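#struct-help
A.M.: can someone run this one for me? Single chain, 245 residues.
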Amino acid sequence: MAIKHKLKSASWVPGSVTLREFETQAATPGEASVVAEIQLGRPLQLRDDPDSELRVVLPAHEHRTTNGTADDQETFELDHNLIECPTTESFVLYEDGAIVKPDSVDYDANSFDYTSSGTETDLDVFYVPRDPAAVEIRKTAPGAGGKVNQTLKEAQTAILHTRDQAQQEIRFGFDRTPLQPYLPRKFRLQVVVDAPYKVAFEAPERANGTPRARNALLSLPRFQTEARIDGLGAAVKQDMIGVRG
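D.P.: on it. Structure tokens below:
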């Protein structure tokens, strides 16, 4: 049976690959970095229909330390430009690992004010930056040192971070081959970022917990099947390198 017939006869269940399913790591500023990836345990097909909901917002992370005077309001300047994001929280602040509210956030000055009741405490900030960054979603075949990969979506944060993604949908826009949306078992789904700032989904553990970027969004719409589709891995890998059967 041809692969296309096997795919059509399989039972596919709709859903999403969400952030909690990915293994994540911080990006290196100024370099293309894999910040999220998952190795698939069953085949999936990424959705590109009008009802699919593709969501991507990748906050910057910065760390600051309060001064040695308790109850002293301080102004902290950020290294990059803030933006008010219509899709998620624009600014999230932790003190010693516990979520707190800033006294104020100045989006024009790219700074925030905060008054700590303690001294020399750790502040972790996750904010949506205006500075442009390139985002790539790709699939990678097993073996070959991860060199066999294919881009599934390229986007700029100038669009992702300024668009209301619930109202102005973002689509994969698959236009290469019929097998482009498919990822067989053992393939990896990766998110790569090239940004001037540090993209991170969490900070190091602090005194009262681990700060996490609760304003980060990563949700990729998919269909998934429990069926074992013989020959799918080889067919998709050949498709990725331009070999047609």
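A.M.: thanks! Residues 35 and 230 are 31 Å apart (CA to CA).
D.P.: also worth noting: The longest strand covers residues 32-39.
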